[in-house]
Structures are given as C-alpha cells and as structure tokens.
Design goal:
281 residues
C-alpha cells in the first residue's frame, strides 16, 4: 500500500516546456513496448546532425522528458541525436502507475534493446545521460550486457531506491522507514526479481564503462549520503570520473534561480566528456 501511494499515479507534466517553445528543435516521435506499457520516444536532432553519436536521455521522477528540453536542445546544437522517452505512466507513455524505482531500469532496458536493433543506429556510438532517478537508471542498467554503450553521464543520481529510504538520522524515522524499506524490498523482489537488487555502483563496476558522475553538495532531493558520488571510494573502475560541486541543488546543469538557464561550464564539461576530451579535475 505504501509503495503504491508513492508510485501508483501518473505524471503528466502540465507546467513543463513544450517542443513548440524550441522552434529550431526537430524531432520524430516513436514507440517502444516495455513490460507494463507502450513508451513514447522522441528522437531530437537538427538538419544534417551527426549519425555516428546517439545520446539516450533518461528523465527523473515526478516529471517527463520535457523538463530537460533546455539540456536536450543544447546537446542537439552540438550535433548529437538525442533519443528521449517518457517512463511508464509519464507524459505520453501508457500506464496508470509508475510501478516503482526498478521500473526506470526496466523501461530503459527496453529502449536500449530497441536502439541496438534499429538499423538507423547500427553504426552509432551510444551514450547514456540521466538525471536524478534517470541517473540511477543509466548506471544501474549497465548491470546488464550493453557492449555498444560506450559511456554514461549520471547527474544528481542515487545509488539505489532502497538506500533512498534509509537516509534518515532521526531514530524514530529510521525505524519507520526501515520497516517501510523492508516492505518495499519484499514487494520489489516479487515484482522485479533480480533487477530490484541493481545498484548504480554495481553497474559502473560490472561494466567498466566510462562514467561521469556529477553531484551538488547541497542537493536536498537526492541527498549526498545516498548519492552515487558518496560511493566514490568503493568504485574501482578507473574509467569513472567524479565532479562534486556546490550551490546547484538538484539541477546541476542549471543556474539556480534562473529558469531554464544552463550552467555554461557544467554543460561544456559534459560535452567534453561525451567527446572523450574530459580532464580529470
């Protein structure tokens, strides 16, 4: 019951920007079947855009992919094709319920399998970019075998949904949410099987994938103690690069207090990483 109170609803994104707000942004709509619903996909590009690089973009919880049209438009301006999609029960995707944290991995897995089979992308270098629970998804999905994925960028991500419910210091809240988390674990094991056990750290380690992990110290939505960045010392993958910043809150790509304004330095750093030109700082 508790689990369904959190996830048993739809997210329609009524107050989010629309594609019409970005007249130079071209896109093609598509569909991918996932385990619980048909997902709406959007291939963003510009005329004569590169076909050798494809970014798959995973959005966070409580929003649709349209919340990231500023980031997507910037990436497209750099010549990338960006395949974004709405998770189950989000935006124009089907489903009455978001189901749970692991559904983010399930949906992304189905989108990736579709991309890997798509003749349009047969020669493309595939990279994943995700924010918040989308960042959890793009790293955790690498527990599966995706050899064509060359890199992942995780922005403000958590290590696992289960850890997210154990972040409280107050002893009473620890007890309440400890029991809550136990119930969630039992439920997830029943619904998702082994995928419910996937963590971001596990995906980064198991795959050895090149990874850029961004987190702001003052993030209250995905607090530091449950972040991927907090696990830096546990990650032996030498291809993982960590960026710890401050003052950005949950949206590390934005200038705080300036609606829709991207942080130029952060976006430049991300683009350098995508081009494999990043410098360890």
């Amino acid at each position: 019951m508790n689990y369904k109170m959190r996830f048993g609803k739809r997210v329609n994104g009524e107050n989010e920007p629309h594609q019409e707000d970005f007249p130079d942004l071209l896109y093609e709509k598509g569909k991918v079947r996932s385990s619980a619903a048909e997902l709406a996909t959007y291939l963003y590009h510009k005329r004569n855009s590169r076909t050798d690089k494809l970014l798959v973009f995973a959005h966070g919880v409580g929003v649709t992919h349209r919340s990231y049209l500023y980031e997507i438009c910037h990436l497209v301006s750099k010549g990338y094709q960006v395949l974004a999609f709405d998770y189950t029960a989000c935006g124009e995707s089907g489903g009455k319920s978001m189901i749970g944290f692991p559904q983010w991995i399930v949906d992304l897995e189905n989108v990736l399998v579709s991309v890997e089979r798509d003749e349009r992308f047969k020669d493309a270098d595939i990279q994943l970019v995700g924010h918040s629970f989308g960042a959890y998804a793009v790293t955790a999905v690498m527990n599966n075998k995706h050899e064509r994925v060359s890199a992942v960028t995780a922005l403000s991500g958590i290590n696992s949904g289960r850890e997210f419910f154990t972040m409280f210091d107050n002893i009473i809240l620890k007890f309440i949410f400890g029991f809550y988390n136990f119930c969630n674990t039992v439920y997830e094991n029943k619904v998702f099987g082994k995928i419910g056990e996937y963590t971001a750290v596990g995906g980064i380690e198991r795959s050895g994938v090149r990874a850029l992990i961004y987190h702001s110290k003052d993030d209250r939505t995905a607090p530091w103690k449950v972040s991927i960045s907090a696990k830096e010392k546990q990650i032996k993958n030498k291809n993982a690069v960590f960026r710890t910043i401050d003052g950005h809150g949950h949206m590390v790509t934005r200038v705080r207090g300036k609606k829709g304004r991207l942080d130029v330095e952060v976006m430049a750093d991300i683009c350098d990483f995508l081009e494999n030109k990043e410098k360890n700082k």
